[in-house]
Design a protein that fits this description.
Length: 312
């Protein structure tokens, strides 16, 4: 005769084991659910850049600042072809979270608005429009202005005491000007600039865009058009003049970030604003030169700058 007590005990043991297994499964599922629920917080922020040295350097600075001052993972997506044309739509789609941009580009190219001469007004108008129309936020500016520029041979600048475009206009009859073909043909190029300031140069020379710096070094011309943070400006004895009557748009650089990203990671605003007013035109020129002409790693150049400024 079978012992009924033994069967009962066995049944209870099996029941207890089943309950334990169910409990373990529930705990595992709850844990997985919690992990899934937290997965959004672990998503990386995507930092992008346009495909040129200055953008690589700045985008590295932004990435390094985030990595050094938070636990937020960073995904780098640098050198995007087409620049703003492709980055801006990707920002709106949520594929990119952060990138460095220029006020003049945002205002006139993205927003398609007419030039605002005052740089501060331009920044504030751009910032307001981006928040309202795109839910993108312009953070504080870095300090440098990568705009169109005129650069004069340093010896000529000293001889004639030239510091501004207006100074140049006063002595332009004794000065030779050089620029690439396109600058003479553009509606906002040489003719409009000359009319705005009253330039009447002794000679106007058409130069190959890649040979402008050599031409001024060799004395073929005395002044050339350039970009105000060109790396080559540091390699030659040149003085970049002040556009004192605001002919060219201002292109002050700053960080653009998705407001949705800021809602998820509000600490990013303070972290990225560490770059506020820290980079001069001269410092950007030097960093660009190191990357463009000396083939240094943009990440190394960016990190060295941040360390020297005490930002990391």
């Amino acid at each position: 005769m079978k012992n009924p007590g033994k069967n009962t005990k066995s049944t209870k043991t099996k029941s207890t084991m089943k309950k334990s297994i169910v409990l373990i499964l529930l705990v595992a599922l709850l844990g997985a659910g919690l992990l899934l629920g937290c997965s959004d917080d672990e998503d990386p922020v995507v930092v992008a850049s346009k495909p040129h040295a200055e953008q690589y350097i700045i985008a590295e600075m932004l990435s390094i600042l985030i990595e050094e001052h938070s636990d937020i993972p960073v995904e780098r997506n640098f050198g995007i072809g087409g620049g703003t044309s492709n980055i801006h739509p990707a920002m709106l789609e949520g594929e990119i979270d952060i990138y460095p941009e220029y006020t003049g580009t945002s205002w006139m190219f993205v927003l398609n608005e007419d030039l605002i001469e005052d740089p501060d007004e331009l920044y504030e108008a751009t910032k307001a429009a981006y928040e309202e129309e795109f839910e993108l936020k312009w953070l504080e500016l870095y300090g440098f202005n990568n705009t169109y520029a005129l650069a004069v041979d340093g010896d000529i600048a000293e001889e004639y005491d030239i510091h501004t475009y207006s100074d140049l206009a006063e002595v332009s009859g004794e000065i030779t000007f050089g620029a690439e073909y396109d600058f003479y043909e553009r509606d906002d190029g040489f003719d409009a600039l000359a009319e705005h300031y009253g330039f009447a140069f002794d000679r106007e020379v058409e130069l190959d865009i890649g040979l402008k710096y050599q031409a001024i070094e060799q004395g073929e011309v005395d002044v050339i058009n350039a970009f105000s943070t060109d790396g080559l400006l540091s390699a030659y004895n040149l003085r970049v003049l002040e556009d004192d009557r605001f002919f060219f748009p201002s292109y002050f650089a700053g960080t653009v970030i998705r407001m949705e990203t800021l809602e998820r990671y509000p600490e990013l605003e303070g972290i990225l604003n560490r770059l506020s007013n820290t980079i001069t035109d001269e410092e950007m020129i030097e960093m660009n030169y190191r990357v463009e002409e000396e083939n240094e790693d943009p990440e190394a150049v960016a990190r060295e700058f941040l360390e020297e400024k005490g930002l990391i």
